[in-house]
Backbone:
């Protein structure tokens, strides 16, 4: 991480998000069916503005092929072309539950290390 760099531009943040994006999308879909741009808006409102539609659609397609979500078309509220919405399947709900457990365990372990270690001064080499 470069000193003075904004956290939203931190490559580490992007990598962390990439690893958790599928679970985030499943959680958003579990809340209610959504269409593509709604994911970008919801993630951005949560402070995850790094995500674009271009990175969401391939992931949605993979999750649909895996049977975690299913899509359907519904009329647009603005009167435009029908939108493709995504909803959670039973398998997707189970995957979300597993993903949340893995995330909580992982972040607890990382937090344990990051909060309970003290930096040394000068460092020593073995």
Residues:
């Amino acid at each position: 991480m470069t000193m003075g760099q904004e956290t939203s531009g931190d490559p580490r943040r992007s990598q962390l998000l990439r690893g958790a994006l599928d679970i985030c999308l499943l959680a958003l879909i579990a809340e209610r069916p959504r269409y593509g741009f709604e994911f970008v808006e919801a993630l951005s409102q949560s402070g995850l503005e790094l995500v674009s539609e271009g990175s969401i659609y391939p992931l949605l397609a993979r999750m649909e092929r895996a049977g975690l979500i299913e899509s359907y078309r519904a009329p647009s509220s603005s009167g435009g072309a029908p939108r493709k919405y995504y909803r959670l399947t039973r398998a997707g709900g189970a995957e979300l539950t597993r993903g949340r457990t893995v995330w909580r365990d992982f972040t607890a372990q990382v937090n344990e290390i990051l909060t309970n270690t003290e930096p040394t001064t000068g460092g020593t080499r073995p």
About this structure: The first strand starts at residue 34 and ends at 35. The chain has a mean pLDDT of 87. Residues 39 and 65 are 19 Å apart (CA to CA).
